[in-house]
């Protein structure tokens, strides 16, 4: 930030002059200048010096998250079949330590069940040891999902807009009968996105 302020006020300015102003050697400053140039925040013109490109740090961060694919950060989804009982699905939820379970019919995505769906059903007078999960799940076509070509930013927007905890990452395939089906290949959740933030911070 200090380098940016100096460049904004004195551009074009050489690395030597920037270094003088913050009492560092040119060599010490070089990695910072390289990063700022690589990020497109500063422009370097040989024999002239550094200019401010006009791009803010926040806009650079914006394009950064829009360039991270859901495929780079997706986690492993927990999947059950439609005939799984609500009881077994709840046990799976605890064993797998997850909040959302995806439901499949003949290998294709047909529904999503969450903690709230389970709580709701246990409030009623149901036999959860025989009731199939298909009876309580949110089903297609109401499932919000993302595809491999989308960015983590697109996924985060859908999670916020639809107020859900996770999105299945799906591949669209054509079934034998010609209809379009969704194959679950991953999961993006609030945890996945938080882990990504921590990794970027640590890196
Ligand atoms: P929780 O139950 O822990 O609040 P969610 O906010 O994800 O978890 O779920 C709230 C509701 O949204 C549930 O009824 C669930 O079935 C549904 N749901 C969860 N994920 C999706 C999704 N990707 N698309 C559509 N509905 C979803």
From TrEMBL:
A Pfam family matched in the record: HTH_11
CDD domains the UniProt entry points to: CBS_pair_CcpN
InterPro entries: CBS_dom, CBS_dom_sf, CBS_domain-containing, HTH_11, UCP026546_HTH-CBS, WH-like_DNA-bd_sf, WH_DNA-bd_sf
Keyword Cell membrane tagged: no
CBS domain span: 71-128, 137-203
Keyword Repeat: yes
Keywords from the UniProt entry: CBS domain, Repeat
Protein name (database record): CBS domain-containing protein
